[in-house]
Amino acid sequence: MTHRFDLRVYYEDTDLAGIVYYANYLKFIERARSEWIAALGVDQMALKRAAGVVFAVRRVVADYLRPAHFGDALSVVSRLTAVSGARFEIDQQVLRGDSVLFAAEVTVVCLGANGAAARIPAEIRRLLAQDLA
Fold first, then answer.
1. Count of Cβ atoms closer than 10 Å to residue 34 Cβ
2. What is the pLDDT of residues 23-33, one digit of tens each?
3. What residue numbers bound the domain in which 82 lies?
4. How many domains does the chain have?
5. Can you give the pTM of this predicted structure?
6. Residue 80: which CATH number?
7. What is the structure's pLDDT at 77?
8. 27, 100 in Cβ contact below 8 A?
9. Which pLDDT belongs to residue 131?
10. Low-confidence ranges of the chain (pLDDT < 70)
11. What are phi and psi of 107, to 5 degrees?
């Protein structure tokens, strides 16, 4: 299954040439992941309070393919590709219409209060597994 998050490029997202600054693509895909997790029914702040765990990005492999510009309407498409006991992997693309501008493979890990890897709570793994199917 895929999740779609729409956004518009604001002036603050761009450099002097009106092109999206490269680091802002990471912000765009982070927002999309947060919205995807929320759409699954996961309240990350409640998860932290109740189970003492949080999600953190462990690895990003990114390809910058085409520039986005001030005023562009973009979509971030996210697709879960793998789930294990303490992590999940997600492919994300930033699109303008049908054109892929940016693509990333992201590994997200579950961390306990001490900052060490922790198992994803069973209920969350179940929700993720349903999204993977």
1. 14
2. 999 999 999 99
3. 2-132
4. 1
5. 0.93
6. 3.10.129.10
7. 98
8. no
9. 81
10. 133
11. -105, 125
